[in-house]
Specification:
By secondary structure, this protein is mainly α. Helices cover about 95% and strands about 0% of the residues. The chain has 1 helix and no strands. It has one helix spanning about 1-25. The protein starts with a helix and ends with a helix.
Length: about 25
């Protein structure tokens, strides 16, 4: 169960970082 939580956390962090990078690149 802990592995699933860590995987979800990493996925959320990765998506947010990619989203922020895309916003910076667009601007």
């Amino acid at each position: 169960m802990e592995n699933i939580g860590i995987a979800l956390l990493l996925m959320v962090v990765g998506m947010t970082t990619v989203f922020i990078i895309l916003l910076i690149v667009i601007n």
